[in-house]
Write a structure and sequence with these properties.
Elements lengths: L10 H8 L7 H9 L6 H18 L4 H17 L8 H19 L1
Length: 107
Amino acid sequence: MPFLDFTLNNPKIKDFLEGTSEFAPVGEFMYVHTHFIENNFLSEIEVMVNLACEELLKSNKKAGVGLKIKSQAEKLGVQLSSVTEETAPHILETLKNIYQLCKVLIK
């Protein structure tokens, strides 16, 4: 069985989150969502969110970005109440927004 990479090292996942590809990695997302995969892009985004929060606590200059992250996080919370292959592209789009906002804060 070939090794499946569900981390940000996977070009399909990384390219989507970076905005260089419109291909939403729905299959990868659904697999991670339904299986216990210790190292995956969702846990990596969670780490990024924690680092972004640390940056926000250090400086009020980036409060606008923090409010955008909060808005996207609230949207994600609602979206996660129904995870299906049909809703996955919308969830992934929200995750992409969060990822990109976090990158602004922790660069």
